[in-house]
């Protein structure tokens, strides 16, 4: 179970309540503050005047947009490969072993017959299919950086080992094999469409979370300004109101964290068992955190808790 820690705030992925249990009334907090030797008795300004810059979310958005571009490139390359391959004409069925369209339904792919009838010269269809695959699927801008697979390795990943063996081992391409290549390629393209939809959903979610965090942080800043306005020392009641509103902001952050944890438990895309989870796939290469949204929430929560502690100093000095 993954854990994200920023400052003094810890969120555990999968936990139902990501915020710590705290004293719920001003009086018990003031009592604690008055007995804490670390609390100064003078007036202390609230922490951090500037709006929080949500760097974690910014980095996540950059990562998502780059990944989205790559998925679109791969989807479009597969579409072009399908269009080109569909335009090729395979050999007639009587030149190949029987078995119908077994390959398209998951069975064995019929290969060219050997040792029956007069020998037939090899055609160039296999070479054309392979050439078109290299020119499309293997020519996306990020191919070398991301995969750097050989032709056989790439075909095996996208179309399956059986198709790869049939295509590369035989001199001629049967009609069933041709149909299977098109069908499997279309399946790979649809998988990119599903992944693209999930990435778009993730982009939408982090935009929404960032907007909500910005509203919370703007309120936090306004509360700070409220205590600093004018030359008069803030009253106990004013400090108590600010302290309570900051508590509401912390609770709002906790709600955001709980919502995000639900998304982590039920992602919009579920890869194969042997693949990393959707969010690991998206953020596993980030240097600072594998859970940027939770980290951004934790960062703001830590700021709010710091502000609440400093409001208690004012409460202690005005009470």
From TrEMBL:
Residues 56-308 form the DUF7260 domain. It holds the Pfam family DUF7260. The chain crosses the membrane at residues 39-58. Signal peptide: none annotated. It comes from the Archaea. Residues 57-84, 192-226 form a coiled coil. Keywords: Coiled coil, Membrane, Transmembrane, Transmembrane helix. This is DUF7260 domain-containing protein.
